[in-house]
């Protein structure tokens, strides 16, 4: 009887995990549609390589924009495609299209609980940070990006911190080793873009942003 009760709880947990992940993805979709904050180091900016953007970067990063189109495809567009694949993996697992991507073991219920907490916290942190950034930008233009207000007083990149937590939570909830590898790839990819963006802001705002960097961590 105890085993049967545990199995029923596990089935309920699977439903709860799937529901929370789908709701989290729904909130992510709404965020991208209505409150998207484009990166200064976006692939679009790298591909277009307008002189205004290129000249705003230190010389150490300007070579990236001057690469041939084919090189940009291999260095940025293909990795971006893999990144989209990472975000599609949880949906494929939930819908049963790729069950081999996730483990299905009784002990996973403990990881799922931790994962659910990380998913919820991650989405809250990201959404609050996006709102904070948009409000600062509305009040003071791009200069709001270097003000230590709200979540940005604790982290220079709270939006990404929330995204990292969200994806780690999903990989734990689904007990997916492959998805966890995808999260590592995502963190590495975004870390490079964040360092590019920080170089842009350092040159754009000078000592004011450098002071912000000295007193505020990049992540946590």
Largest sheet: none
Overall geometry: globular
Gyration radius, rounded: 20 Å
**How confident overall, as mean pLDDT?**
85
**Helix/strand/pairing class, anyone?**
mainly alpha
**Number of DSSP helical runs:** 9
Order of helices and strands: HHHHHHHHH
Query: How much β-strand is present in the residues?
Result: under 5%
**Euclidean distance between termini CA atoms:** 46 Å
Which spans of ≥5 residues are poorly predicted at pLDDT below 50?
none
Number of strands: 0
Percentage of residues assigned to helices: over 70%
Q: What descriptive keywords fit this protein?
A:
220 residues, mainly alpha, 9 helices, 0% strand
What does this structure look like?
It is a single chain. The protein is mainly alpha-helical and 220 residues long. It is 74% helix and 0% strand. The chain has nine helices and no strands. It has helices spanning 2-34, 43-48, 51-54, 59-65, 69-94, 108-140, 158-173, 177-205, 207-215. Helix 7 (158-173) runs antiparallel to helix 8. The termini are far apart.
């Amino acid at each position: 009887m105890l085993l049967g009760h545990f199995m029923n709880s596990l089935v309920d947990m699977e439903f709860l995990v799937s529901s929370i992940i789908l709701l989290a993805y729904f909130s992510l979709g709404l965020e991208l549609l209505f409150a998207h904050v484009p990166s200064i180091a976006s692939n679009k900016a790298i591909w277009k390589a307008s002189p205004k953007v290129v000249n705003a970067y230190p010389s150490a990063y300007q070579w990236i924009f001057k690469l041939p189109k084919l090189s940009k495809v291999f260095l940025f567009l293909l990795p971006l495609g893999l990144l989209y694949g990472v975000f599609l993996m949880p949906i494929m697992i939930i819908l049963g299209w790729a069950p081999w991507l996730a483990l299905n073991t009784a002990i996973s219920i403990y990881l799922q609980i931790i994962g659910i907490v990380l998913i919820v916290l991650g989405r809250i942190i990201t959404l609050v940070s996006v709102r904070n950034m948009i409000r600062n930008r509305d009040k003071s233009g791009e200069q709001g990006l270097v003000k230590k207000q709200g979540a940005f007083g604790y982290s220079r990149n709270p939006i990404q911190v929330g995204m990292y937590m969200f994806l780690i939570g999903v990989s734990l909830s689904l007990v997916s080793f492959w998805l966890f590898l995808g999260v590592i790839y995502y963190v590495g990819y975004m870390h490079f873009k964040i360092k590019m963006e920080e170089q842009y802001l350092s040159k754009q705002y000078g000592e004011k942003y450098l002071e912000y960097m000295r007193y505020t961590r990049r992540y946590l």
